[in-house]
From TrEMBL, chains A, B:
Catalyzes the attachment of proline to tRNA(Pro) in a two-step reaction: proline is first activated by ATP to form Pro-AMP and then transferred to the acceptor end of tRNA(Pro). Residues 27-294 form the Aminoacyl-transfer RNA synthetases class-II family profile domain. One of its GO terms (molecular function) is proline-tRNA ligase activity. This is Proline--tRNA ligase. Its EC number is 6.1.1.15. Keywords: Aminoacyl-tRNA synthetase, ATP-binding, Cytoplasm, Ligase, Nucleotide-binding, Protein biosynthesis. The keyword Lyase does not apply. Consists of three domains: the N-terminal catalytic domain, the anticodon-binding domain and the C-terminal extension. Homodimer. Belongs to the class-II aminoacyl-tRNA synthetase family. ProS type 3 subfamily.
Amino acid sequence: MAKNLTPRAEDYSKWYNELVIKADLAENSGVRGCMVIKPYGYAIWERMQAELDRMFKETGHQNAYFPLFIPKSYFSKEASHVDGFAKECAVVTHYRLKNAEDGSGIVVDPEAKLEEELIVRPTSETIIWDTYRKWIQSYRDLPLLINQWANVVRWEMRTRLFLRTAEFLWQEGHTAHATKDEAVAEAEQMMNVYADFVENFMAIPVVKGTKTESERFAGALETYCIEALMQDGKALQAGTSHFLGQNFAKAFDVKFTSKEGKLDYVWATSWGVSTRLMGALVMTHSDDNGLVLPPNLAPDQLVIVPIYRNEEEFDGVDAIAKNLMKQLRSKGVRVKYDNRDTQKPGWKFNEYELKGVPLRIAIGPKDVEKGTVELARRDTFQKEFISHDKVVNTVESLLGEIQENLYKKAISHRIENTSEVTSYDEFKKVLDTKGGFILAHWDGTSATEEMVKNDTKATIRCIPLDGDTQPGTCIFTGKPSQRKVLFARAY
Amino acid sequence: MAKNLTPRAEDYSKWYNELVIKADLAENSGVRGCMVIKPYGYAIWERMQAELDRMFKETGHQNAYFPLFIPKSYFSKEASHVDGFAKECAVVTHYRLKNAEDGSGIVVDPEAKLEEELIVRPTSETIIWDTYRKWIQSYRDLPLLINQWANVVRWEMRTRLFLRTAEFLWQEGHTAHATKDEAVAEAEQMMNVYADFVENFMAIPVVKGTKTESERFAGALETYCIEALMQDGKALQAGTSHFLGQNFAKAFDVKFTSKEGKLDYVWATSWGVSTRLMGALVMTHSDDNGLVLPPNLAPDQLVIVPIYRNEEEFDGVDAIAKNLMKQLRSKGVRVKYDNRDTQKPGWKFNEYELKGVPLRIAIGPKDVEKGTVELARRDTFQKEFISHDKVVNTVESLLGEIQENLYKKAISHRIENTSEVTSYDEFKKVLDTKGGFILAHWDGTSATEEMVKNDTKATIRCIPLDGDTQPGTCIFTGKPSQRKVLFARAY
């Protein structure tokens, strides 16, 4: 077993940081708060992108691309939006450098000052709605269903790889509709698309819900979200979908003529997931030996490691390996054959364990004799010897089983770590002993939410859409509560 | 025929601008020099991306992602690089806005000034080589073959949609090698990959060659390029691949230990193509009626337009359309069935002509009776009636034929518009009468190149890798010339 990571029980945060770097997912760059996504990490992100993109297109969305820069004045047009984003943004003020007159290097050319500063997009509602004004005149132009894959920048002071970085990659959907009902249905649909993706593709169970007023997106009337629970008992927001009402349409004067010839503002949604999902992936499935990848997301689903002492042995092993690789690839299994002679088998076992490859086949001279291979699972460490003719079927069924097993493990963990409490004392005790999700009654006010947060660092993750809807009394104020809500400390 | 574009013969530049906007490819945004790539244009770009990405992976490259921002000091490390890019870059100087004290809106917060300015990447050599220093220690780490899909910013003063924009999308490959020969071979390989893609996928013939010293990438020892000829006789550089020698390795101190235990700087290449290819696509194939798309790049390869006067007629037409659509899709043909009743058939014909859909099927009540459909080609405007059972085969063979025909037309145009001249008078005469590519002898000096450029606006597009290599005398100075080079006025 690999011994190169700090165990989770010792220091979860350190374990995470080490794993992200050692498994070659990402690393810090020379630019404050900006990460480099390494090839292995990026290959996983590409698999997420491909699947999400497919799901967006299947639900009628098209991709487009809008400018990286947003003129400062655009931000001011939607009041709550500017409050939410102005405090942490990268501002472009000049468009040229020049050689310093004292020969000290290159400096900003003061003569190349922009008339109006440009903000590097932290999110694109304003630039997109400025464009939609030109695209939308009539009900025939609606619904407008657009998605963008892009980089965005939010000047976070404390950053962590994938979880919180100044620059991150994401997709942002921006849609326009003729009616309020359609826009609400779209926002709900996209929350469901995200939940489907995160649960079935990433094997991470989520709770669907709406955000409280104080946790809503800046400019939204309703924020739908999916919340996941990490191994350390902290929550992670895995995706959000916003019903924006007519706020941006009014701010950017986007009106349409209805079938009945009436002029009205259009209704909007926006929704996004980001490279933050990589953090959720790591913190849901991985263990002290390294990354554990659901087969759907694994760039390599299976690795074949040959074991041999001399050329003759290699030839026997190699022939079997190549034959199996061919058979597996023809079934669509992503196979890597690591026949490098610069590294020993033990080193390779360790490496692929660290990188979370779901299945490993080792073939040695004895296997050649017996007509078997050793097949090992990354998730359970189970090993078995199987005959060559059973490899393809076994691998195919195991990949499905691993995908399912990871989801089951994660949902068991969530069930074990979801508590219902009836008093504030109990609430604080659960928070400090086991953490996790806590369902509790809340009086519906931002004031109470704020006081609980200041006291315990726990926030309301969401008002769940499903589950117990019995009224009760707020654990903090004793006032009436409509239903229990979901609290947790969160990333 | 569509009459909504300025004819090319009247004003080629106006025709281009109108076409890009009316065919829904892109438009100008509210941000100076930055475009919005509209869904239809982006769908074509996605097809280019998918094919290039496949070709890069097939040649052993992996994708990764590096920061958008580059600290100012990184630029200064490679002297010719900073000269090439410092004069046109977006500079981030602050990281926060705040409410103005006089209530006049939001302003840059002077207290949030960065210690070191950040440049929005115009290209990523510096930030990537700063990272490679950590990734490369030994010959085992080489070759390092990485590509990045990204947005970059160059503060151009005169911009045109796709051809020259402040922000554009591209891919940039950055590779590191143990030997000079390997790096040169990689740079040449990627030029060949680009040529293969542009010729076979985009149906645009190119001339492969190397740039003269004055036209090289800032920091390169050799720039390989592919040059295409547009319909108006101007050249367009469609892709470049650079052999960077050890310049960036030395600037960022990237050394490796060889098999023999020797420490040496690594050898580098970089290579890229951008959304500029969209401009090349438009200006190579399109006509006065609109866009003409090679079937490989067309988001919709065939559109079906139903023609009917009442519901009964529609039912008959609709059944055939749906049946054909199903058959064609099962063969992998990208089919759009436009059954909207908000637009008339004539409007639709015009629309899909403007958008360059390669094939159109119209089905009316008479076709239902006769068991035929009308099939029309976008490239030649040929129409024929064919029976239902022949549709699939005919469409499949026509798509191949159109792809081929577009390439043939383009190469004929290039042959007709490539001249060889032996005197400077002849050179100027050809330039002013027909333009196009001009092969002529040149004495090999930057001084001569510069004088010709100042006098005629023609530049040396490349020193071709193939073709006539006979020595001669320079048309401008009469000095000895090693071989003819390729001149043209260029985009």
